[in-house]
């Protein structure tokens, strides 16, 4: 493509990293969870990534990890307890406007979600898509995967089955109100 002044732009050669794309979402969830803990509404934490350190470089006053590896595949990023129920969830983002790629959910994560549901826990994804934050319950994810052969969940399915998570100041994402609506009776609040 030719641009003004005959400058040719080649956008295909740019190296774009998506490695930290979900960090903003994680920051918002971490702030929400911190608020929930401060007001004693729920106890929810981000799980540390299970790594084993295999090589360390020692300096004057510092130690630098130079080699490490993942011990086991990580399950979902967040877990905790709310109103006596175990909850386990993950944060996902997509730039795709029409569907959420199932490649964003690893097989071991899906297996973990199935086990949480089987044992009576609550599992879900918080998906940032189309400028909104969506709650999508594990039961709906599992149903979709078990009944459709698509490699992505259509946005219309997320709109239909999921719930928009309200953005606020405190907490930044108030996803516990959705759990109240779906899992806890009105008189339990």
Which properties best describe this structure?
12 strands, alpha+beta, six-stranded mixed β-sheet, globular, Trna Endonuclease, Chain: A, domain 1, single chain, 189 residues, 5 helices
Basic shape: globular
CATH hierarchy class name: Alpha Beta
For this structure, the CATH topology is: Trna Endonuclease, Chain: A, domain 1
Average predicted confidence as pLDDT? 84
**Helix count from the secondary structure assignment:** 5
**C-alpha end-to-end distance:** 60 Å
Q: Report low-confidence residues grouped into runs of 5 or more.
A: 1-22
How many domain modules? Answer: 1
Can you give me a brief rundown of this structure?
By secondary structure, the protein is of the alpha+beta class.
Can you walk me through this structure?
This protein has 189 residues and is α+β, with helices and mostly antiparallel strands. The protein has one domain: Trna Endonuclease, Chain: A, domain 1. The protein is built from five helices and twelve strands. The protein has helices at 23-38, 107-118, 138-147, 155-161, 176-183; strands at 2-3, 7-8, 43-46, 51-58, 63-70, 78-82, 85-93, 99-101, 122-129, 132-137, 152-154, 163-164. The strands form four sheets. A six-stranded mixed β-sheet has the order 3-6-7-9-10-12, with helices on both faces. The protein has a two-stranded antiparallel ribbon with strand order 1-2. A two-stranded antiparallel sheet has the order 4-5. The longest helix is centred in the N-terminal third of the chain and has 16 residues, at 23-38. The radius of gyration is 20 Å and the shape is globular. The chain starts with a strand and ends in a 6-residue tail after the last helix.
């Amino acid at each position: 493509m030719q641009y003004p002044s005959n400058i040719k732009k080649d956008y295909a050669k740019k190296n774009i990293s998506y490695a930290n794309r979900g960090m903003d979402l994680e920051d918002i969830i971490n702030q929400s969870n911190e608020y929930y803990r401060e007001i004693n509404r729920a106890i929810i934490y981000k799980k540390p990534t299970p790594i084993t350190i295999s090589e360390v470089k020692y300096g004057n006053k510092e130690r630098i990890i130079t080699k490490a590896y993942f011990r086991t595949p990580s399950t979902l990023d967040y877990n905790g307890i709310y109103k006596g129920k175990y909850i386990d969830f993950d944060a996902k983002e997509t730039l795709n406007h029409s569907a959420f790629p199932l490649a964003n959910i690893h097989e071991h994560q899906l297996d973990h979600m199935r086990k949480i549901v089987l044992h009576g826990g609550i599992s879900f994804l918080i998906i940032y898509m189309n400028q909104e934050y969506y709650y999508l319950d594990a039961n709906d994810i599992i149903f979709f995967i078990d009944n459709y052969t698509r490699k992505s969940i259509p946005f219309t399915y997320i709109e239909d089955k999921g719930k928009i998570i309200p953005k606020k100041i405190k907490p930044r994402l108030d996803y516990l109100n959705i759990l109240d609506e779906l899992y806890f009776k009105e008189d339990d609040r």
